[in-house]
Design brief:
Layout (H helix, E strand, L loop, with lengths): L3 E10 L2 E11 L4 E5 L6 H9 L6 E6 L2 E2 L10 E4 L11 H11 L4 H14 L15 H13 L5 E5 L7 H18 L2 E6 L2 H7 L2 E6 L2 E6 L1 H6 L4 H6 L4 E8 L2 E2 L13 E7 L4 E4 L5 E10 L4 E6 L5 E6 L8 E6 L4 E5 L2 E9 L2 E6 L4
Parallel strand pairs: 3-8, 3-9, 6-7, 7-8
Antiparallel strand pairs: 1-2, 1-4, 4-5, 9-10, 11-12, 11-13, 13-19, 14-18, 15-16, 15-18, 16-17, 19-20, 20-21
Amino acid sequence: MARLTIRNVSKTFGTSFAVRDFSLDVEDGELVCLLGPSGSGKSTLLRMIGGFEQPSGGSILIDAKDVTALPPEKRPTGMVFQSHALWTHMDVFNNIAFGLKLRRLPKAEIRERVENALALVGLADYGRRMTTQLSGGQQQRVALARSLVLEPKILLLDEPFASLDQHLRERLREEVRDIQQRVGITTLFVTHGQDEALALADRIVVMRDGSTEQIAPPDIVYREPQTEFVAGFIGSMNFVRTSIRGGVSQHPAFPVAVPIEDGDVVLAFRPEALSLQPSKTLSTAIVHRSIDFGTHKIVDIDLADGTRLKAMTAPDSNWSKGVGIEPRASAFRAFRDNRLVYQSTTSGERHHDRILGNA
């Protein structure tokens, strides 16, 4: 279909940067999620790609053609907004056909393409319904069909499921992923939902304050976060502040080896990497509460210094008020000034320690 290239794109509003020196290559047929909190610049970036905002600097290329200065209608892009943006005085068929009519295509071709688009999004029999007669999920499918019927090279989705309930969001994101793979269209998807990004993306771009924190496939972003921000934003993460002296953490509950230069660090590890033990010989903590999710339990634990941690345990486990805690030494990371300085990971049964940069 198409390749998207974003080179050093910035966007300022007054003296403030919404996007700062952003670069990204999106390969043919790839689905990339722009993930970040509100105000991170992800929607502004998407609007610049679609031509609805003009960059303050940098360039945007589609198949090596510079489209930076082109208006939206001249770009080979299709955009689906959170608000659906459907015309309520038109039925579904005419909403989808509107762009094709502007192109003055033959009526027979318009009908064929609209019917194909409706079938693609699972609304084959809905052409003559008014948009006000549709559910929120159905309206979003019409908005998707309206973009796809124009056969864009790049599909842009700006938090399209944000206004829908959780079950509908989950169902629609699976359908969108299936449609995207069937059509093979290059896609950028903006979301602030980590679950959505992990479920949909070939790669995730984690953004903060208009800049890139990390770009990687979902499993790498989850298992190997490169900054403290990414570690805390993707999934549930435990953070423990400690000092390193002689290559060992000085925190009484986590005296683990961290072979880096002395100084303050933040240790990070997932709830599934924290073991609870009834033994009183291990570091003692207090159980705050236990939440049963059916397949597992999440246990909130308070340390003596006020730090609260989460541990994942078996669904049939029961813990008294006082427990011992023990992190797997092979599954933690150390951050200093938001930067990853040490990681300890396991590959098979081999244990790998890695020191990154100058600690």
